[in-house]
Every structure is written in C-alpha cells, then in structure tokens.
Amino acid sequence: MAQGEWPAYGGTYAAARYSPLTQIDRDNAKDLHVVWRWKSPDMAIKEADPTIGPTRANESTPLMVGGVLYTSTSLSQVAAIDCRDRRDQMGVRSQDLRERPRHSRQ
Question: Is the pLDDT of residue 78 over 70?
C-alpha cells in the first residue's frame, strides 16, 4: 500500500483506522485551511429533473487509491476524483439516473 492511501473502510484491510502520515500533527492542525472543494453533481441533477430524489444528507468514507479519491453521493452515484487535477474521473450525468428503475437501489 502506497503511503497516504486509504484503500478500505477503516484505512486498511484490517480496519486499523490509523494513518502513518506525519505531515499534519497536533501542533499544526490549527493552521489548516480549505484549498479546494469538490461539489457533488446531485443538486444540479435534481434541479434539472425534480422527479429524481429524494436527496438526503450524505456521509461516506472515501477511499484513496492510486491518487484517486472514490466517494459516493447522496443519489448513490460514485465519484472518482483525481487529487492531482481535482477533476471527477467518472462524470455523473442526469440521464444515467433516469435510466434506472425508480425502485432499484443499484
């Protein structure tokens, strides 16, 4: 496992919930600030098609593998965000959601 990766829930396949990274510590954590944010496409999708939803608060445990951050959205879509250029590798489209049966949880 490459340093800084978080390939499974809990950080490791043994769910260690520990990161060996040392760049951020108790002394400098107070100096952190937001450098960039990723905006989920869920709200734009719902605005384009109000029949899609409902959207609920979303809490996920992102995974980091090979410089790509994988996370899920409140509409149960998956995003793959390249941490180097901050772009979504997968790009969710509202058409994808309309093609799913309403009762499906896939």
Answer: yes
